[in-house]
Specification:
Layout (H helix, E strand, L loop, with lengths): L1 H14 L3 E6 L9 E2 L2 E5 L4 E9 L2 E10 L4 E5 L11 E5 L2 E5 L12 E5 L4 E5 L13 E5 L2 E5 L11 E5 L4 E6 L17 E5 L2 E7 L12 E8 L4 E4 L11 E4 L4 E5 L8 E3 L7 E6 L4 E6 L1 E2 L9 E4 L4 E4 L8 E5 L16 E2 H26 L6 H28 L5 H13 L19 H31 L4 H39 L1
Parallel strand pairs: 1-24
Antiparallel strand pairs: 1-27, 2-4, 3-4, 4-5, 5-6, 7-8, 8-9, 9-10, 11-12, 12-13, 13-14, 15-16, 16-17, 17-18, 19-20, 20-22, 21-28, 22-23, 25-26, 26-27
């Protein structure tokens, strides 16, 4: 009797857990397996629209409708948008609209198309003003009559702007201009992120920040929300693993989910793929992420799936999977057990690059220069310590330089350019092996004077710009705010130490000259 009571008590909670259902097993009458496609659920018609993507047949441009009542797919034979993948799409009434994407021959689009389910016809929208730059790998969706677009990239550039296309007035409106990658106030330029819209908030998660005139983690693990009304970005707490090509969708009026994606790259040194029976859930009211365990017909791991909200759950199709099944996720995440804690161990080449550079340029080389300037009265000990610190510092910085190239490539962006020049100038230390010797008498040779000034002033310039570049690197690497504060405190401490030591040295030298004059 007791066991029956327990079963009756816990059954409603178990029943309401997050659960994956296989609602349609793919067959010959279904869309072919694909990734990076777009889907949208038309609530009033109980139908799903699917378009494009890429798969074994290359880049696709076919249109399909899934009838949720009869559970059948039907291909729509009609002309429409060019073949494309990684585009932004959403639903407005009985319209499924899309923009951007990459097509054949690596062409990128900035056009807008809408598919009317009542007529089953695609119509190209004609903007009355200049559209944004063509791009793909962006995030966005539709809120009311506005098709939002944010971030993405083209052949040579990453974007960080946010704008929308008004589906009634047919005009583009910019909400947030393209910025730089050294501000903590908004998500840096990126592509291949996950994103969705819930009410008046646009969400973005992860993606790739390196390349295209920018640098940063790839994959990234930061998440943000853009308030459409206030036009302000807000950074969300971290939780799920860094990834590219994930998908996001509203699960309810208060939650969004993050699913799938690629959690590996040549940058990742320590990290593991998330369990297949896990989804990340963001609760808007609680303002927190959770990693929750899902039951049911668990889809296999996949990159680039497509999600769409249906009113009481989320439909999922595609991704880097060999099947073309259609899944449905429903339930209350609160009733589901926690899969694992947030912020699992993760370490990448960018972090290793930063550690090496801080030890090299931020500690060893700074200390070596400090000793050479302010401890010459400890001759010859000062020189021995100075030489050891400079050699160790330069070797460590070189290791960091190599890590930087391996993680970000040879792309031109401010942090990388400054780092390259600083490291190149820093190599002037090796001229010490062929420096002119000091004279045996009291007179210093002119060549020696020139070399000492060259060595001293170039070194000082390098050390100053190295500290500045370390600070820029922290912003670029999306480091935690506490790390910014700690480094700025360290920066201020180093500068203060130099100022105090310089004042003390000059005061000592002045006193010695005064005493010498008195003795004469």
């Amino acid at each position: 009797m007791k066991s029956i009571f327990i079963l009756i008590y816990i059954f409603p909670f178990v029943q309401n857990q997050l659960i994956w259902q296989l609602v349609h097993k793919g067959d010959g009458n279904s869309p072919s397996p694909r990734r990076d496609c777009g889907i949208g659920f038309i609530q009033s018609l109980k139908k799903i629209v699917l378009f494009g993507g890429r798969g074994g047949d290359g880049i696709l441009g076919d249109t399909w409708i899934y009838h949720t009542t009869s559970k059948t797919w039907r291909e729509i034979k009609t002309s429409g948008p060019s073949r494309r993948f990684s585009f932004v799409s959403g639903v407005f009434g009985q319209l499924y609209c899309l923009t951007t994407g990459e097509g054949t021959s690596k062409v990128v689009f900035n056009d807008v198309w809408c598919f009317d389910l009542s007529t089953e016809i695609w119509t190209k929208q004609t903007p009355i003003n200049e559209p944004p730059s063509g791009r793909y790998g962006s995030v966005g969706g539709i809120s009311n009559n506005q098709l939002y677009l944010s971030h993405g990239f083209d052949k040579g550039r990453r974007f960080a702007d946010t704008l929308y296309f008004d589906l009634i007035s047919n005009q583009w409106v910019k909400l947030h201009k393209d910025g730089h990658s050294y501000s903590p106030n908004y998500p840096h330029a990126r592509c291949l992120s996950g994103g969705c819209i819930l009410e008046s908030q646009l969400f973005i998660y992860g993606g790739c920040l390196k390349g295209g005139g920018a640098g940063g983690p790839c994959p990234a693990g930061d998440s943000w929300t853009f308030n459409i009304n206030d036009r302000e970005w807000t950074k969300l707490p971290g939780c799920a693993s860094p990834r590219t090509y994930p998908a996001m969708a509203p699960l309810s009026s208060e939650t969004v989910i993050l699913f799938g994606g690629d959690e590996s790259s040549n940058q990742v040194l320590i990290g593991s793929d998330s369990p297949t029976d896990q989804v990340a859930v963001y609760d808007v009211g609680r303002k927190e992420w959770n990693l929750r365990k899902v039951v049911g017909s668990i889809p296999d791991r996949r990159i680039g799936p497509a999600l769409t909200h249906s009113g009481n759950g989320v439909y999922m199709f595609g991704g880097s999977s060999s099947n073309n099944n259609l899944y449905f996720l429903s339930g209350n995440y609160i009733s589901s057990p926690i899969s694992e804690s947030c912020n699992q161990p993760f370490f990448n080449l960018i972090a290793l690059h930063g550690i090496f550079m801080f030890i090299g340029w931020g500690v060893c080389l700074q200390a070596g220069a400090f000793i050479a300037r302010y401890f010459r009265h400890k001759d010859p000990l000062w020189f021995k310590i100075h030489r050891i610190l400079q050699i160790v510092g330069l070797l460590t910085a070189t290791a960091g330089f190599i890590c930087g190239i391996l993680s970000a490539g040879l792309h031109a962006f401010p942090h990388g350019i400054i780092g390259f020049l600083v490291h190149l100038i820093g190599l002037q230390q090796f001229t010490a092996f062929c420096r002119p010797h000091k004279s045996v008498d009291s007179k210093t040779p002119k060549k020696r004077v020139i070399w000492e000034n060259f060595h001293r002033w170039l070194g000082r310039v390098c050390l100053l710009f190295a500290l500045i570049n370390c600070a820029l690197g922290l912003f670029l690497a999306l480091a935690a705010k506490g790390l910014y504060i700690a480094f700025l405190f360290y920066f201020a401490t180093v500068i203060t130490a130099y100022v105090i030591a310089e004042v003390r040295l000059r005061w000592t030298n002045k006193s010695q000259v005064t005493n010498s004059n008195k003795e004469q």
